[in-house]
Design a protein that fits this description.
Number of strands: 7
CATH superfamily of the largest domain: Vaccinia Virus protein VP39
Strand order of the largest sheet: 3-2-1-4-5-7-6
CATH topology of the largest domain: Rossmann fold
Largest sheet: 7 strands, mixed
Helix content: 40-55%
CATH architecture of the largest domain: 3-Layer(aba) Sandwich
Radius of gyration: 20 Å
Distance between the termini: 62 Å
Length: 324
């Protein structure tokens, strides 16, 4: 089957309620117990400046940006601030392109439904899209608010997705594919975590990763400065766990790695793809010394869409000022 035919079978990456501000406000209000007016105001603020709510909460709690502490671990599990940032990021053009690319890659790579673990999938939009593509999906996340939100969108979708919040319940060697998108840059030990992810894969399985280690700015306060050293790094992060790069988009948005099969022969990668992957890694390595230009480029690529502000405009009632 041609690539064009495969593309026609891929559902829209704008999954579930992502294109419906009214429904998003309802869901977040249900999950957090906040008023719809307050949710609208926060979501409006987030669309204008992504991570605005996270930055406010970190400042309020006295948590230093870009530095790992136990307080930050508690923040991930208990704060509702990420609900807004994750909604906004999941409908940014760059994220939508990645979601579609992953679905199309899997459709080309292997026939039939695959057993997929979506590790750290936030609000569950990637899991839902993969389920819509016909795969058997297990969603894993630690944030209580995110898990509750994900359960709601899975239940209303008509698609079955297994929800796991306890990492100890994830089976070893049970998955054809593991996705880990925008997670590693937040963790104090990304190398060890990649080892866990590799353990969940069957031999010959795929790990699909997006990890902008270089992005250290006001708009990414929970990305750890200590992880910048892994930008563009295969030798320390993936190769020790038997993970070999075989595909991906430019600048590893995302990167596909294969767990070495029993015969030791990884999937062949064409010369053009090899060049793209090697060049991308080489460019990303430059961020280890100076991340400023990379952060600027990331902000430009992740620019929002003004249409998502519709219906979120704060009213005089939201602001606390009397109506005129």
């Amino acid at each position: 089957m041609s690539n064009a035919a495969d593309s026609r079978r891929i559902p829209s990456p704008l999954v579930g309620p992502l294109g419906n501000n009214g429904r998003l406000v309802e869901l977040i209000a249900e999950v957090t117990g906040q008023s719809p007016n307050l949710v609208r105001r926060k979501l409006h603020e987030e669309e204008q400046s992504i991570c605005a709510n996270v930055c406010k909460d970190l400042h309020r709690l006295g948590i230093r940006p870009h530095v790992w502490t136990d307080k930050l671990a508690e923040f991930y599990e208990q704060s509702d601030a990420y609900l807004y940032g994750l909604v906004v990021w999941n409908r940014r053009p760059l994220k939508l392109e990645m979601r579609r690319w992953i679905a199309e890659y899997l459709a080309r790579d292997r026939p039939g439904p695959l057993d997929i673990l979506a590790s750290g999938d936030g609000l569950g939009f990637d899991s839902l899209h993969l389920a819509e593509c016909g795969h058997n999906v297990t969603y894993h996340e630690v944030s209580n608010y995110s898990v509750e939100f994900a359960r709601k969108i899975f239940a209303s979708s008509g698609h079955s997705v297994i929800v796991l919040q306890d990492r100890g319940r994830i089976e070893t060697g049970a998955y054809d594919v593991v996705t880990c998108l925008d997670v590693l840059e937040h963790l104090p030990d990304p190398v060890g975590f990649v080892g866990q992810l590799a353990g969940y894969l069957r031999p010959g399985g795929r790990l699909i990763v997006h990890a902008p280690f270089f992005e250290l700015s006001l708009f990414s306060p929970t990305h750890l400065r200590s992880n910048r050293r892994y930008s563009g790094d295969l030798a320390r992060l993936y190769l020790p766990h038997g993970l070999v790069p075989i595909d991906g988009r430019m600048f590893w948005n995302p990167l596909v790695l294969e767990k070495t099969p029993p015969n030791g022969r990884s999937t062949k990668t064409g010369p053009l793809k090899k060049t793209i992957l090697y060049f991308s890694g080489l460019v990303l390595r430059g961020a280890r010394r100076w991340c400023g230009p990379y952060c600027w480029a990331a902000r430009r690529l992740a620019k929002g869409d003004l249409r998502w502000l519709e219906g979120l405009e704060p009213s005089s009632e939201d602001s606390g000022y009397p109506k005129i």
